[in-house]
Write a structure and sequence with these properties.
It catalyses: L-threonylcarbamoyladenylate + adenosine(37) in tRNA = N(6)-L-threonylcarbamoyladenosine(37) in tRNA + AMP + H(+). With 341 residues, the chain is an alpha/beta fold. It starts with a strand and ends in a 23-residue tail after the last helix.
C-alpha cells in the first residue's frame, strides 16, 4: 500500500510517501519539508493566519515534488493520510482539505492522523525498530508526555507537563537571553560552549513522586540568573548549559521512573527535542545501565514531517480503518481516545 502523508499542524509543511510493501526505512519512498521559520522570525513566534496561508501556497507543489522523487503519480496512490490534530485549526484545515479532496478524486481511502501518534510511531520506521510494549517520551515545543504503549493505538498517559512543554521552555529561555528565533536549537548549540556546573538550576518536580513535569519555574530561575549576571557571551553559554542540563536530567529521571512503573525496558523518544544530542546520550546511557534500550528516529524525523503521518496513516489504513468524506480538524485531541490497530 502506497500512502501519501500530509503534515500541516503548525509552521512546517511536510509531505511523504510510505510504501508498506517495502516496509522499514526503505518503505519511505520520498519526503519533502518546507519550514516557515523565516516567515515568522520577525514576529518571534508562529502567526496562525500566516501559517495557514503559507500551507496553501506550498502544499500542492510539495506533493508534486514528492511524487516525482518517488517515481510515482497520483494514480499509484492507495491511500492518503493527513494530520487532523492537535494543532492550529486553520493550518490543519489546509492539509485536511487537500487530503480529502485528493482521496475523493482518486477514489482511495483517507484517514486523519493524530499528530502526536505520528511522532510516537516515527521511531518504528527504522529497520531495527522495537515493538510494543514500551514507554514513549514525546517531547516537543507543544507537548511533553510520558505514554505507556501497550500496542499500536492502545496508549496510557503516565505523565505530562503542567505548564510549559520542554521545547517551549527552550524557546522562551532562549528569547529572554536575546537569542534569535527559533531559540531552542540556538540555545542547545550555545550550551556546547558552556562550562558545566557554573550555573546549577533545580530539576523540577523530581523531589516528589509522580511522572508529571513543570518547566515554568526553571525558566524563571534562568531569567533571574541572567538578569543578575554580567551578561557576557561566556556567561550566556554557561547559563544555557546549566538550563539544558536541568531539562535533560529532569527528563531522564522521569523516564526511568516510568520504565520502573510499567516494568518495561524499552524507551522510545520522539518530537523535536528528541533531536537534542545531550538528551539522546543521557537516555541511551540510562537505559543501557538498566539492561534496556533507548530508540530514536533519525533527527530529520524528530521535527514535524510528512513521513511520520504517512507511516502512521498506512498502519491504520492497512488495518481497514478509514473515514468518510467529511473534512475534520481537531485542534485538541486526546490520544487515549484513538482506536486500537
Amino acid at each position: 500500500m502506497k500512502v501519501l502523508g500530509i503534515e500541516s499542524s503548525c509552521d512546517e509543511t511536510g509531505v511523504a510517501v510510505y510504501d508498506t510493501a517495502i516496509g522499514g526505512a526503505a518503505g519511505l519512498r520520498a519526503q519533502a519539508l518546507y519550514s516557515q521559520i523565516a516567515l515568522h522570525a520577525d514576529y518571534g513566534g508562529v502567526v496562525p493566519e500566516l501559517a495557514s496561508r503559507d500551507h496553501v501556497r506550498k502544499l500542492l507543489p510539495l506533493i508534486r515534488q514528492t511524487l516525482a522523487e518517488a517515481g510515482l503519480t497520483t494514480a499509484d496512490l492507495d491511500g492518503v493520510a493527513y494530520t487532523a490534530g492537535p494543532g492550529l485549526v486553520g493550518a490543519l484545515l489546509v492539509g485536511a482539505g487537500v487530503a480529502r479532496s485528493l482521496a475523493w478524486a482518486l477514489d482511495v481511502p483517507a484517514i486523519g492522523v493524530h499528530h502526536m501518534e505520528g511522532h510516537l510511531l516515527a521511531p518504528l520506521i527504522e529497520d531495527d525498530a522495537p515493538q510494543p510494549p514500551f514507554v514513549a517520551l514525546l517531547v516537543s515545543g507543544g507537548h511533553t508526555q510520558l505514554v505507556a504503549v501497550d500496542a499500536i493505538g492502545r496508549y496510557r498517559l503516565l505523565g505530562e507537563t503542567l505548564d510549559d512543554a520542554a521545547g517551549e521552555a527552550f524557546d522562551k529561555t532562549a528569547k529572554l537571553m536575546g537569542l534569535p528565533y527559533p531559540g531552542g536549537p540556538q540555545l542547545a548549540k550555545l550550551a556546547e560552549q558552556g562550562v558545566p556546573g557554573r550555573f546549577k538550576f533545580s530539576r523540577p518536580m523530581t523531589d516528589r513522586p509522580g511522572l508529571d513535569f513543570s518547566f515554568s519555574g526553571l525558566k524563571t530561575q534562568v531569567l533571574l540568573a541572567w538578569q543578575g549576571s554580567d551578561q557576557s557571551e561566556q556567561t550566556r553559554a554557561d547559563i544555557a548549559r546549566g538550563f539544558e542540563d536541568a531539562v535533560v536530567d529532569t527528563l531522564a529521571i522521569k523516564c526511568e521512573r516510568a520504565l520502573d512503573a510499567t516494568d518495561c525496558d524499552t524507551l522510545i523518544v520522539a518530537g523535536g527535542v528528541g533531536a537534542n544530542a545531550r538528551l539522546r546520550a543521557r537516555l541511551v546511557e540510562m537505559c543501557a545501565a538498566r539492561g534496556g534500550r533507548a530508540c530514536f528516529p533519525r533527527p530529520a524525523l524528530c521535527t514535524d514531517n510528512g513521513a511520520m503521518i504517512a507511516f502512521a496513516g498506512a498502519l491504520r489504513l492497512e488495518a481497514g480503518q478509514h473515514e468518510d468524506a467529511a473534512i475534520r480538524a481537531v485542534p485538541r485531541w486526546d490520544m487515549a481516545a484513538l482506536p486500537a490497530v
